[in-house]
Amino acid sequence: MRYALLGSLMACVLLSGLCGVAVAAEKKFNHYSIDLPGKCTATEKEGIVTVTCGQDSFFSIGIFSRAETGNLSARQFAEKQSARLKGTAPAKADDGGGWTFQAMSGRVKTHADVSTEGDLTMLFISDVSDKDWPEALQKAYDSLRGADDVADALIQKSLFERE
Questions:
Q1: By the 8 A CB rule, do 71 and 137 touch?
Q2: What are the backbone angles phi and psi of residue 47, rounded to the nearest 5°?
Q3: CA diameter of the chain
Q4: pLDDT tens, 42-76?
Q5: 3-44: per-residue pLDDT in tens?
Q6: Cα separation of 11 and 5, whole Å?
Q7: How many helices (H) and strands (E) does the chain have?
Q8: Residue 63 forms beta bridges with which residues?
Q9: Which pTM value belongs to this model?
Q10: Alpha-carbon span 123 to 67, nearest angstrom
């Protein structure tokens, strides 16, 4: 009897551990990684990853080395991305740390930020309702981390220190 109870307890512990692993899968990209909850999808195009967990809720992120941007300054990179997305002219961000512009993604209004740290430039785009994201999308966002110290510093200062 005691062994049966112990066996059942061990099975529960193992299964709960497996369930925890299935909840979010780490996805690694060029300069960063994301823990992607099961309800979300991530698609990559031209170095920019878009994470969605619903039709109108998303964020997109891309981190590029200076060489990967074609040696563009942050302003030039913002201008290029804004033109690609048919967005507004980039303006200096309020915090002085980068550039910002608006664009439409289908019928969803978006906000984009371009920021830099060392040799890296980051483009971050989100729907303007990012305060009302589904829980799974917020968890994916909160899990963003750089592949190295410079990339992580860029993510931290650009996305989390302003909140």
A1: no
A2: 80, 0
A3: 73
A4: 999 999 999 998 767 899 999 999 999 999 999 99
A5: 443 344 344 433 444 443 446 799 999 999 999 998 899 999
A6: 10
A7: 4, 10
A8: 122
A9: 0.82
A10: 15
- Cα dihedral value 47, 163, 41, 67, nearest 10: 10
Tokens 């550039």 -> residue: 99
pLDDT given for residue 4 in this prediction: 42
Tokens in use for 96?
């002085």
Tokens of 41: 């999808």
Q: 63: closest CA among 114, 120, 118, 110?
A: 120
C-alpha torsion angle, residues 13, 14, 20, 21 (rounded to 10): 160
Specify which residues 127 forms β-bridges with: 110
Cα–Cα dist 103/107, whole Å: 10
Phi, psi of 22 (to 5 degrees): -75, -15
Amino acid code (one letter) for 52 = T
The answer to whether residues 114 and 123 touch, using CB atoms and an 8 Å cutoff, is yes
DSSP, collapsed to helix, strand or coil, labels residue 83 as: helix
Q: How far apart are CA 132 and CA 123, in angstroms?
A: 21
b/e code 42-58 from CB counts within 10 Å (16+ = b): beeeeebbbbbbeeebb
